[in-house]
Amino acid sequence: MKEKQNQNLILESNIKILSPHILIVCIFSVAISIVTLFFVKDKPTAGFVSERVLIITGILLYTPLFSAEYAENLHEVIVSKVTKYRNIIYTRYICVSVVLIALTLMFVLVNINKITNIHITLMNTVCISLFLGNVGLFFTRMTKKTVLGYMTSLGIYMICMFSEVTYNKSLLFPPVGEVNMNLVIIFIIALVLCMISLGKIKNAVQ
Amino acid sequence: MKIFSKELKSLIFSALFVIYVVFTVIFFLFGYTGRLFLYRYELPPKNDSEQLLLKNMAEYQMVLYDIYGDFSFIPSNDINASVNNGYTDLIYAYDNNSYPAYEKTISLSEAKQKQMKKVIDEIRVYDPKKDALNVIDFYKGSPVIERTEYEFALTLTEYYALMIKAGNIVGRNSLFLSPEFFYTQNKAATYEEALEYYNTKVVKNLFENDRLTNGLARSYGTVMNYIAVLFPCFITMYSIGKDKKINELLYSKPIKSWRFILIKYISIIVTSLLPFLLLSVYAVFHAKSFISPVSAAIPINIDYFAYIKITFLWLLPTISFVVSVTMLISYLIDSNAAVIAPILFVLITFSTPMIGAYGLNNFVILFNSEFLYDLYKYYQSSIYVNRIFYALISVILVLLSVLVYNTKRKAVRIERKAKSKFNFRK
Known about the structure:
In chain A, 77% of the residues lie in helices and 0% in strands. Chain A is mainly α. The longest helix of chain A has 38 residues, at 2-39. Chain B is mainly alpha-helical. Helices cover 66% and strands 5% of the residues of chain B. Chain B is built from 15 helices and 6 strands. Chain B has helices at 2-12, 15-32, 48-52, 57-68, 79-96, 110-123, 156-170, 179-182, 191-209, 213-241, 247-251, 257-295, 306-333, 340-351, 373-425; strands at 73-75, 99-101, 104-106, 134-139, 142-146, 186-188. In chain B, 38% of the residues are buried. Chains A and B meet through helix 1, helix 2, helix 3 and helix 8 of A and helix 2, strand 3, helix 10 and helix 14 of B.
C-alpha cells in the first residue's frame, strides 16, 4: 500500500517537474497540427512538416530530463527522493516517450487525409525525434548543462536540414515518406545514446 | 571593464564555446568551402575539334557541358524572349493555381493568388480572358504551352527581381526563385559565346565589380546566418542561466541594472562574433589560394575586408536581434523554456527563401549567389534598411530587458526590506 502511494507520489512530482516542458511541446505540436490542417494543401508538404518540423518535440521532451536536478529545483526533487534516483529518471523517460508518441499520433490523425503513408510517417517521425532527443539527453548528462544538450541536438538538426536544402540530401535523416538505412542507423545511435545517458545513475543528485 | 572581461572569460573558456566553434567550423567547411568549385571560375578551355564529330543535339549538349562547364548554356541575347519564357510559365501556373517547385507543385490561397496577380501585372498587365494560354502538348507530365510573343519593357535584372518576388509568394522551394536557371531563354553556346558570357558573368561581375571576395562573402554570409540565428541564443541562455544561483548576491551589488545588462549583452555579442571574425580572416586567404590557378591568367584585385564587412553588416544585426529576444524571454520566464526562441528562429530561417526576401519581416539576409552582382545592387538599399531596422529593434529589446531586470531587482529588495522589518519587530 505504502509502495503504491510512493509510486503515485513519484509520478505526480515528476509530471510536475516536466509539466512546463510538456506544456510547451503540446502547444508547439497543436499549433503545427492546426497550421498543417488549414494551410498545407499538398501531401508531400504535410509529410515534410511531420518528419522535419514535428521532430523538434523530441529535443524539447528528452533533453531536460535531468534539468530539475541540475538547476537545483530542490522542493520537487526532495519529494522524489522516496525512491531510487534511477527509477525517477526512468519514470520521466517513459512519461516523455508516451507524450511523444501521443503527439505524433495526434498530428497524423488530425492530418490523416494529407499523409500518404501513415506507417512510414509515424515511424520516421518517432525515430528521428528519439534520435535528436537522445543526443540532447546525452550531452546534458555529459556536460551537466541542459543548454548544451539543446544546443548540440539543435545543431545536428540544423546540419541535417541545411544539407537537405543545399545538397538535396539529408546527412542523417531518411528522406520524407521513405524508409532507408539511415532510419536504422539513427535508431541504433538513439538506443546507444539512451543506454549511455541512463546507465549508471547513482541514487543521488549528480 | 573588469566585470566585462570576467564575463567574457567565463563564456569563452566554457564547453559551450567549444561546441559553438565546432559547429561554426563544420558549417564553414560543409556549407561554404565545400560548395566552391574551381571550374565555375575558370576560363572555358577551347576544344573545337570535338564539336565537329558530333551527330545529334543531345550529344552536342553533353559535350558542350564537358568542355565549357557552367558556360555551355548561356542566356539568349534576346531579352524579350527570356522574359516571355518566364512570363508565360508564370501565368500558366497562376491560371491553374499550380506552381512548380522542387519535386512537387504548390497551390496558393486566394490572398496569395491576389498578390501573385499584382506581380504578374508588374511584368505585363494580364487579362485571363483575352490572353488565354493554349496548351499544345504534354511532355513527361509537363505542359508544352504555345507562347505568344508579348512585348515587354523590362531589363533582365528587373525581370529576375520580379520572378524572385513571385517565387517568394510561392515559398522557399519555388522554381521561380531561380529565374536564371529555369526561366531564361538559354541556348547552347559556341566557344566565342561561352567566352563572352564568362567575361560578363565571372570576369566583369565577380572579379571586377565584386573583387571576388565581395561575391564569395555573400555566400559566406548566407551560410553563416544559419549559425547566427541559433547558437548566440544558447550563449545568452547559458550566460543568464549561470547567474541564477547567485542572483540574490547580484541584486545587492552596487552596479546599475542598465550597466549590468549592457555588459552582459556586449559580452554575448563579442563571444558570438569571435568565430565569425576568425573565419573571416581565414576565408580571405582561402579565397586567395583557391582562385590562384585563375588569378595567374586574370589579375584579381581582392578585397581583403569583404568577409569582415559582411560579418558586421549582415551577421551582427541578426546576432543582436536574436540575442536581445532570447535575453528578454529568459528574464521574463526565468527558465530553460526560452529554448523555444531559437527553435522558432531556426524554423523561420529555413522557410526564408535563399534570395530576394529582404522585407522588414525577414530578420536574416540570405543571398545565395556570388555571380548576381546586378541583382545584389538592385536589392542593396532594401538590405541596408532591413539591417538598420533590426539593429534598432535590438536596442529597444535590450532596453525592455533592463526594465524587466530592474523590476525584478526592486521586487527582491522590497521583499528583503519587509523581511528585515518583520524580524526587527519580532
